[in-house]
Amino acid sequence: MSEIEELINRIEELRLNMIQAKEGRNYTDPEVIATSQALDDVLDKYQEMIMKKAEQDDRDRALGVGL
Fold this sequence. Notes:
Elements: H1 3-22, H2 30-63
Helix pairs in contact: 1-2
């Protein structure tokens, strides 16, 4: 499994945790905040990886790599 696939799985897991943590709580509840922050961290990593891959793909196309 690729690192991006692992992040997608982790995002889904944390998203479900967020839904469960929110049940019966306010958004300012410490558990909800902690769960939200964990999800944010993984989403940031995912976005960074996707952006780096897009930049690499652009460089490869410019150099004619993989044609």
